[in-house]
Amino acid sequence: MTSLSQIAIFLAAAVIAVSLFRWLKLSSILGYVAAGLVIGPWGLGLIRDVENILQLSEFGIVLLLFVIGLELQPTRLWVMRRNVFGLGSAQVALCTALLAGGAWLTGLPPATALIIGFGLSLSSTPLVLQVLAERGELKSNHGRAAFGILLFQDLAVLPMLAVLPMLAPQAGSTTPGEPWWLPLAKLVAVIAIVVIGGRLVLRPALRIVARVRVTEVFTAAALLTVIGTALLVREAGLSMALGAFLAGVLLADSEFRHELEADIEPFKGLLLGLFFVAVGMSANLGLLSAEPLTVVAVTAGLLFFKIIAVSLLGMFTRCKDGSALRLGFVLASGGEFAFVLFTLAARERVLDAQTADLLILAVTLSMMAGPLLLTLYEMAASKIAARAPQREFDAIEERDNRVIIAGFGRVGQIVARVLRARRIAFTALDINQTHVDFVRRFGNKIYYGDASRLDLLRAAGAEKAEIFVLAIDDVDASLRTAALVCAQFPHLKIIARARSRQHAFALMELNLHYIMRETFLSSLDMASTTLEALGEDAAFARASVKRFRQHDEATLRTQYEIKEDETKLIANAVEAAQQLEKLFESDAAPRREDTLQVRARVER
User: Fold this and answer.
1) What pLDDT does 304 receive?
2) Model-level pTM greater than 0.70?
3) Whose CA is closest to 13, among 229, 281, 378?
């Protein structure tokens, strides 16, 4: 089979498998691995030269480590130091100890068991972040904890990749009289060369290349940077990924960071995809039919020990109210660096091929089972929560407050702070009991209650209040509350927060007159500041922004009338943009005439 035919097979398998897995809301990594399983020797047998493909595709890992290095700015690590170095190191240490202990009990040598335990302790960064993003949990307690742990795992891979070649059998058979500390000295010397050379040579060289202003040349320089440092480190008998990582860290706070990342990203994505396809091709599916109990036992043991260990760590941190157990399920599966580690360990003969095949297959199965286990856990947790006795809403003190604030998040709190500073009494309601308890710790007077319930609104004094600030984050709850207030308390002036244009349209259906789009005013302030930073007169910048605001608000009212007709909406948006340009041109014309007159006077 020709190379071109193989490329066509790879591309077709990747496109089909990844598209299918993304449609099922699963990780693209699993799609690549599944594609490899199908076209590899244990599947349809379309591709059989797995070894050479793995060697080529491992450069994708080198590029991945370089990009990770670029993202590790010291200031970012310092802000997240508690989750990264505290919780992250504890997770890796505890899971490694438990899993390595299990491997050692099966009769494996201590060094081999340690590598296995460490490799299985890692989780998939792209898989976990994707799962959290889909559920909107990246900013939750367990989401932030998971991100810190994953970041530490990415850092912890580097020392293991550096040490791995030294553990190889041939590495131990050094020439007679060669001291034991020589490999360590090589490591220190290479790191020093890369660090010093990067400071003295790499950045100045990139500045010279950047002056050429040819995109292709800078892309070539970026690839040369990665390849050069990787080859330098490999000459010292260390991992190429270590050199690429060091180069990335050196450039993390440079002016070239974003451009380098953008140039490397396409190559990294393609080669990483090829690597995971090759991993799927090399997965020994024969083990699943020959030793199904062993494969299932290893996979189940991996998931069980990681869920227990990570959940226990979560309980000793700030993960409360079920977040600790959720963190355990989020990080339960194995990760893509386990593929890298076990593949390299087998190549260096630190692991035997059969054990490596078993571990790679177990990690693959765990990555497929992890998201499913999380979904099952959430279903079970929701059922248990539904059966558990719910906390009763707070009893609201009867006061003649002029303002009621529904929703005490980032918007409601700012409104409340201004009112408190002016000594204007208000009653605040929020449906999130965890958030209520947290806000109360800072001395805020807030009640746990559902603002869309008529009895609670009456208890909050809606019949005597003057203003109802609708700052609820959830769109459906916001609309439900607005409709109830309009129907039952028509005297109240509702000042509503709108999350989007569509939310604003829905509020306008209720004939509300005070609708504030939450990012609109801050965006206008930013636009005004941008114009001033570009050298515009401050008064003219504010006038331009004011003109834009008036035009956009008029456009919003016009579009509300035609919101059901997409064709008319598109036509109106185009027409509005053209009108705005003409308005700005008419505003700028007198300024140009004034400027010309001033120049004429100066020339005279």
Assistant:
1) 92
2) no
3) 281
